[in-house]
Design a protein that fits this description.
This protein is of the alpha+beta class. The protein has a single domain, classed as 2-Layer Sandwich (Alpha-Beta Plaits), CATH 3.30.70.100. Helix content is about 45%, strand content about 20%. The longest helix is centred in the C-terminal third of the chain and has 21 residues. It starts with a strand and ends in an 8-residue tail after the last helix.
Length: about 150
């Protein structure tokens, strides 16, 4: 099983409803592929963590890279994982209340700013993003909203 994190910039303005619709559609498609993960959208940028069977994640990333709605600005190499961070989320974005409950909004915003700065270092950024995802996954353990087990 592997995970990949990517950050991308939308090519057009996305509303909160657009983001929610994307998370719902992604969740439906990911359930069929046994993929789980997390999606965040802020200031016209996407932050997404995807985990699942290696072949399925690689195929999905090929589709995501070709999606004309955004341009990928950062992508981690596939990271081999022993267990899922988000076993119950086919793909989910958090409400502002949920996001605040894990104190992650500022951290994600800082990461997005860091990616745009001249100080960018992919290994350092990957480590910061993985630490933040671990904190977000604590909410996943408390909330089994999608009730999905691959």
């Amino acid at each position: 099983m592997i995970s990949i994190i990517y950050l991308s910039e939308a090519r057009h303005v996305f509303t909160d409803d657009d983001e929610n619709d994307l998370a719902i559609l992604s969740g439906c498609n990911n359930k069929q592929r046994h993929i789980t993960g997390y999606l965040c959208f802020f200031r016209n940028k996407f932050f997404q963590y995807i985990e699942g069977p290696e072949t399925d994640v690689i195929v999905l990333m090929d589709i995501i890279r070709k999606d004309p709605r955004h341009n990928i600005i950062f992508e981690t190499r596939p990271l081999f994982i022993e267990s899922r961070k988000f076993p119950n989320w086919c793909m989910r974005s958090l409400s502002k209340h949920e996001f605040a409950s894990v104190y992650m909004e500022d951290c994600i915003k800082q990461s997005l700013h860091f990616i745009d700065s001249n100080q960018f270092n992919s290994e350092v950024c990957t480590e910061k993003l993985l630490r933040q995802l671990s904190r977000i996954s604590m909410l996943n353990r408390r909330n089994t909203m999608n009730n999905y087990t691959p």
